[in-house]
Amino acid sequence: MVTDPISDYLTRVRNAQSAGHKVVEIPASNIKKEITKILFDQGYILNYKFEDNAVQGIIKIALKYDRQTNKPAIKSIQRASKPGLRKYTGSKTLPRVLNGLGVAIISTSKGVMTDKKAREEKVGGEVICYVY
Fold first, then answer.
1. Which long-range contacts link 20-24 to residues 24+ away (Cβ below 8 Å)?
2. Could you state, in chain order, the average pLDDT of each consecutive group of 10 residues for the chain (132 residues)?
């Protein structure tokens, strides 16, 4: 049993990139699907596919690398809010990752979204992770 499934998700992506894998498979959940969609929209992963089987389902993520240097597109992916210490923020105090070059993924009352979209919607919430 995994105590923190989102940390497990981020660790699987991080480990697969450091090992140079093209595809990583992760057990699915609704919040993991939303995080995957955001990573795809922001250009951090090549593609993704949701496979539903009888039990839980699997997310297959095609990782993105630079063509010349073969370095991963995601330089850092860190969990911000942990089960033991949740980090909530208001709409006016949303974090900026690398002065706007990175993305903070926020779980709000209007769904999971990036920090930029949360500022536009004027909503706060739980800071899930930082990606750059």
1. 20/70, 21/63, 22/62, 22/63, 23/60, 23/61, 23/62, 23/63, 24/60, 24/61, 24/63
2. 90 96 95 97 96 89 94 95 95 94 97 97 97 96
Which tokens hold the place of 30? 């609704």
Any alpha helices (H) in 3-101, and if so which ranges?
5-19, 30-41
The sheet with strand 58-63 has its strands ordered as 23-27, 58-63, 45-51
- On whether the pTM is more than 0.90, the answer is yes
pLDDT at position 128 is 97
Classify 17 as helix, strand or coil. Answer: helix
Contact 60, 25 (CB under 8 A): yes
Query: How is residue 52 annotated by DSSP?
Result: -
Interatomic CA distance for residues 76 and 42, integer angstroms: 14
Tokens 């039990």 identify what position? 55
What 8-state DSSP symbol labels residue 100? G
